[in-house]
Specification:
Length: about 140
């Protein structure tokens, strides 16, 4: 049920993000989500795409070190105060640690939280048990 996220190491220099995204754009890879964390010498770009295999192959062939990891894609169906807190409360009750998270907006007017957690299976089961249905990879080809 989880989603595959690609983490890419990119030099922290002008134009490097453009070069990396241009490779994907030229091959019609659709970026559905992106997060950038930087350090002095390099950045870690985390992306969600509509075609993981094609994207990772293109990136590798272009010299980019990248890694696939599982993340949980959680819809926040209502734009209301406390929607995120509700999700985080469920994970807290289950003692599930969140390593990082970021938000993406879908074409379906939904906000999705992308969560990297210590146990994605437990997180998904806990959310499902409370009526919150995490998205799967197919969601990224429709969003």
């Amino acid at each position: 049920m989880s989603v595959k996220q690609i983490s890419i190491f990119v030099e922290n220099k002008p134009g490097k993000m453009f070069e990396m995204t241009e490779i994907l754009a030229a091959s019609k890879i659709n970026l559905r989500g992106l997060s950038l964390a930087e350090t002095e010498g390099f950045g870690i770009v985390r992306i969600l795409v509509d075609d993981v295999y094609k994207a990772t192959t293109l990136l590798k062939d272009s010299g980019y070190v990248n890694k696939i990891s599982k993340v949980v894609l959680v819809p926040l169906p209502e734009d209301k105060p406390g929607a995120l807190s509700e999700v985080l409360g469920i994970l807290n009750e289950e003692k599930i640690n969140i390593n990082y998270m970021y938000a993406v907006n879908g074409d379906d007017n939904m906000t999705y939280m992308v969560l990297k957690v210590n146990d994605s299976n437990a997180a998904e089961l806990a959310l499902e048990a409370r009526g919150i249905h995490p998205g799967d990879q197919e969601v990224l080809t429709q969003v």
